Automatic annotation (TrEMBL):
UniProt name for this protein: Aminopeptidase N
Residues annotated as domain Aminopeptidase N-like N-terminal: 86-182
Family: Belongs to the peptidase M1 family.
Native source species: Streptomyces lutosisoli
Enzyme class: hydrolase
CDD domains: M1_APN
Keywords of the record: Aminopeptidase, Hydrolase, Metal-binding, Metalloprotease, Protease, Zinc
PANTHER family: PROTEASE M1 ZINC METALLOPROTEASE, PUROMYCIN-SENSITIVE AMINOPEPTIDASE-RELATED
Span of domain Peptidase M1 membrane alanine aminopeptidase: 222-438
Catalytic activity: Release of an N-terminal amino acid, Xaa-|-Yaa- from a peptide, amide or arylamide. Xaa is preferably Ala, but may be most amino acids including Pro (slow action). When a terminal hydrophobic residue is followed by a prolyl residue, the two may be released as an intact Xaa-Pro dipeptide
Organism classification: Bacteria, Bacillati, Actinomycetota, Actinomycetes, Kitasatosporales
Amino acid sequence: MSVLTRDEAQTRAKLLDVHHYGIELDLTRGDDTFDSRTVIRFTVRTDADTFVELKPAELRSVTLDGRPLDPETLDENRLPLGGLTAGEHELRVDAAMRYSRTGEGMHRFTDPTDGETYLYTQLFMEDVQRVFAAFDQPDLKAVFDLSVTAPDGWTVLANGVTEHLGEGRWKAAPTPLISTYLVAVAAGPWHSVRTEHRGLPFGIHCRRSLAPHMDADADEILDITRACFDRYHEKFEEPYPFDSYDQAFVPEFNAGAMENPGLVTFRDEFIYRSAVTDTERQTRAMVIAHEMAHMWFGDLVTLRWWDDIWLNESFAEYMGYQTLTEATRFTDTWVDFGVARKSWGYDADQRPSTHPVAPDPEAVPDTASAMLNFDGISYAKGASALRQLVAWLGEKDFLAGINTHFARHKFANATLADFIDSLAGATERDVHAWADAWLRTTGVDTLTPTTEAGTDGSHTLTVRRDGSRPHRINVGVYDQDLTDSSRLTLRERLDLDVPQAEPEAIGKRPALLLLNDGDLSYAKVRFDPESFETVRTALSGLPDPLTRAVVWNALRDAVRDGELPAMAYVDAARAHLPHETDLALVQGVLSFATAHVADRFLTAEDRPAALATLTDLCRDLIRRTEDGSHPGLRLTAVRHFIDVAAHPDTISAWFSEGTVPGGPELDPELRWRILGRLAVLGAVDDAVIDAELVQDPSATGQEGAARCRAALPDPAAKRAAWESMFTTDDLSNYLFTATAQGFWQPEQADLVREYVERYWSDAVALAARRGPAIAEAAGRWAFPVHAISASTLTLGETCLRDADPTPALRRKLTDQLDDLARALRVRQP
C-alpha cells in the first residue's frame, strides 16, 4: 500500500478544508466483512486534483457531487479525485471492508469462553482506511457523525454519547473537530458499569466473561478516573472538551491503550483475572492517567504531522506519572518509572536506530517512517526531558505555558515550534536553547563524580560530563549510620548545574556521592571508587526507594556497558533484595537479572550458577513473607521462582497441590506460568496442557496453551509452532505472540538451532504478507534472542543488507541485532 508523505499531506492541507464525515457502518454482514458508507463534505480552495484513501475488500460505488466515479480507478489505497474546482464538494463512498485479526482497523474477536463476539477500532496512523474512506492525515480535522447497525443484544460505544434507535440501529452524537485517527467504535454485548461525574456520563466496559473481575475493581478504576479528571481540571484552564468519558477494555489490543476522545480503549489484561501486585495496579492507574492527559494534549490540540508524535506521548507519560503521584494513593510512581520505563529510553537511545526526541521533519518523510518512532525515546526519554524541563523552569511557568498552548490551538493542530513559543512566553529563561540541547540531540550523557581533598580535610566535587546537554541535578551526600553500618543517612542534597562553573564544596568525605539523586534528569551515572564500595555493601540501606532506583539503574547501565561483570549484578540482587520493600524495585531488578543477565549476558556454562542464585533469592523472599504481611512481594517472589526453576520438582508439586505452601493458591495466571516452565523443562506433555485448557478455555487460556505447546522440547512441537507462526497466517496477533514467547528457550539451543537460520527469510516474508503489527511481533517476540553468537549476527546483518524487510521489521531487527552485539561484548572477558 502507498504511504502518505509529509509533502503530500502539506499539499493536501493547503488545498482542502474538510468539514464533516457522515459514516454508516453495518456490522451484521457476516464474519469476514462489514459495510461502510461514507459521505464527506469538504471545500477546495483552488482548482486541483487530490485523492482520498481507503482499503476496501470491495469498492461498490463512488460519487462526487452526484457524479459517479469509476471504482476501478482505486490504486492500492488511493482513489483519485480529479478536476476538483474551488468551492464546496460532497464525496460518497460505498464499500465492504474486512475485519482484522491483527488489532489494526476493525478488529473482530470471538470469546472462546462463551462464544460472544466483540468488535473495536484501532485507527492509528493510517488504519482508518480499513474502516471508512478518509482524507487521512492529522491536520484535516472534521466533525464525525456516526451511525452503526449491530446485532441484537449488542451495545455500540463511540466518541460521543450513543443512542439506540431500535432494530439494532445506533446513533452517536457528532464529535467536535477531531483527527481521522481518533475516531473510535466498540461494539458487542459489553458488560458496563456507568456513573456520572461533574455532569458527564462516565462508563467502563469489558467482555461479559470478564464481568466479575471488572466489577471487583470497578470502584478502584472509577475512583482513579475521577481523581485524575479533577486534578487535570486544577492544572488546565481548558475544560474537558468532549461529551462523555468511556473506557473500554478490549481483547487482543496491541498497545497499552489508545486515547480516542471520549472512548479510551485499553488492553483487557488490565481487567485482572488473577492476583496482581500493587505495582501492577499502579501501572493500570498510570495508563488511565496517561490516556486522560491525551484528551487535552493530542485530542484537543493535535500534532500537525507525525514528526511531533513525541509531544503527545511524552506529555501524557509525564503527566500520567506526576498526576497519579499528586491525586491518588500511588505516591511513589516515579520509582516505577525509573526502574521500569526509563531504562526503555536509555536502551533505545544507545542503538543505531536512535533519533532525537523531536526529530527533524525531514527525518519523518512518510507514515511508514513515523510509525517507527513509537519507542522508548518518544515515551520514556521524552517524559524524562519534560521532567528535567519542569525542574529547570518551575512547575508554575510550565503549566502557564501549557495553558497558553491549549488556548491558542484548541480543536486545531500545532507543532513543536508552537509548543516552545507557548512555554517561552511564560518565562524569561531561554526555552528555545533548552529545546535545541535536549530535544534535537541523540544519545545518553554520562555523569561521573570525582572528589579532591583539601589541606583542611574538606573535599570538593567535580562532575565530569560525557555528552552535551545541560543538567540540573541533585547530588545525594550520604554518610554511614553511626549505629548501623548497613544503613546510610542523608547528610544533604546539593542542587547542581552541569557543567559546573567551579567545583562544589561537600565538606568531609561522605560514604556515598550519588549523582542525579531524585532522578530528575536523564543521564547515566557512575560512582567514584569509595561510593561504589558503599553501594556494594549498603545499597539496601539507602532510605528512599527512588534513590535506590537510581543506584540500581546505574548498576544496570554498568553491566550493559561492560564496566561491571554481569554476575556482580546477580550477586548484588542476592545481597540486597531480601531487604527491599518497594515492589517495583524487586520486580525490575529480578526481571533484568533473569531476562538479560542470566538469559543473555552470561554464557551457557555460567547461566546455571545465576539461576541457582536467583532461586535461592526468591526462596528467601518467599520465606520472609510467610506471615502474610507482604502479599505483593510474596507473589513477585513466587512468579520469579517459577521462571528461574532449573528443576521441576518444587513447582510440579505446587501445580499438583494447587497452591504454594503457605499461599498463594494457584490462580489461572500462576497455573499457566508453572505449566510453561514445566514444558520448557520437559516435565509435561500435550495431555497435561490439553487438560488445563479444559479447565481454563478463556482467551488467556488459549494463549497459555499455545505458549506451552511451543515450549515443549520436542522436534514435532517446534515444527508445528513454527508452521503456525510463519506459514498458515491463521494466528491472531495475541496467539502469534504467545507462540513466539514459548518457542525460543535458552535450555533448548541445540533443538532450535536450525530455526535460527530459517528465521530471517521467513520473518521477511511474513511481515510483507501480514503487515506492521505482525511484523513488530515477529521482530520482538519471534526473534532468536538467545542465539548469542557471531554467526547469528552475520545472518542478521545479511538479512538487513539483502532481504529488503518492511520498515517495521527492519527497525525491530536493527534493534535486536544491536542488543545481540552488546551481549557478545558483555560476554567477552
